[in-house]
């Protein structure tokens, strides 16, 4: 039997809303800059995450979507994390360094 090109995995979708007191620009810049930098410094995240994507929703995109009657989720962004299985995801988010550094950093920009 042929071996699959892509190993089985799950995608974790995290729907994010920015804190009311931060600007859209700050939210998007911080998320794709500072926050990602912390994730890439986390050995378990780097070792276990198969793929990581960010989808940013800007005010300009919302306006353009409304113009064409396209519904836009009420999120400011979506993080998509591909991992082998739920146990792998849980091992990442309960990792001591993740809990100590990455999770608290979310308080800077996410509700």
From TrEMBL:
GO terms for molecular function: oxidoreductase activity. It comes from the Eukaryota. It holds the Pfam family EthD. Residues 19-110 form the EthD domain. Belongs to the tpcK family. This is EthD domain-containing protein.
């Amino acid at each position: 039997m042929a071996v699959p090109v892509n190993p089985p995995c799950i995608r974790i979708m995290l729907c994010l809303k920015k804190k009311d007191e931060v600007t859209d620009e700050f939210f998007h810049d911080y998320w794709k800059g500072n926050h990602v930098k912390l994730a890439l410094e986390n050995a378990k995240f780097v070792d276990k995450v198969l793929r990581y994507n960010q989808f940013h929703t800007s005010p300009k995109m919302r306006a353009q979507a409304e113009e064409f009657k396209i519904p836009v989720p009420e999120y400011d962004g979506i993080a998509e994390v591909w991992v082998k299985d739920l146990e792998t995801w849980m091992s990442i988010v309960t990792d001591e360094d993740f809990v100590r550094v990455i999770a608290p950093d979310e308080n800077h920009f996410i509700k």
